[in-house]
Amino acid sequence: NAGVMQNPRHLVRRRGQEARLRCSPMKGHSHVYWYRQLPEEGLKFMVYLQKENIIDESGMPKERFSAEFPKEGPSILRIQQVVRGDSAAYFCASSPPGAAETQYFGPGTRLLVL
Amino acid sequence: AQSVSQHNHHVILSEAASLELGCNYSYGGTVNLFWYVQYPGQHLQLLLKYFSGDPLVKGIKGFEAEFIKSKFSFNLRKPSVQWSDTAEYFCAVINTGGFKTIFGAGTRLFVKA
Known about the structure:
- The complex is a heterodimer of chains A (114) and B (113).
- Chain A is 0% helix and 49% strand.
- With 114 residues, chain A is mainly beta.
- Helices cover 0% and strands 55% of the residues of chain B.
């Protein structure tokens, strides 16, 4: 029973490029959450998605960041025109319907912007 | 706004020493509480959680935590640490019925062999 999967595990981008981070939830989970961990800080909530719907994106930066969770395929967190301050670990979590309090975390994607 | 405070950013212990990591949260309603561990280079793992019932919660690897509602605290304890417990520990809270997990800044534990 595979857990939450994220890829890539490590991603290096130059300033101005785009970063695409993927998250496949656990089997049977239809809710996905993205968190960001900046250096020396705890994880901070970014966005909560269900299939084809963004439920809450109050933690997402207003510009350059977007997220989707299509009907088929993984959830994607996209960062356009990356800057050095975007360097962080990005964690995805998933939960089954009706149990948003029980979130299972993936291994994270470590993004480094040069 | 909800927040989680972890008192120590870095802790250094010798093997067999006892561990207590402090965690306080601010929220007036009913909450669910968690402790996660992140070993070097690995992903977050759930150590234990409290939803309701007995405020003394036992988790994996000999860890336990006590929820003290009057103090808004959920401290993590282990009677005797091992070198393999070297990791970063995160306290987290989510309000009942909510979905935003609020994390503390983490405590890095280093256990000397």
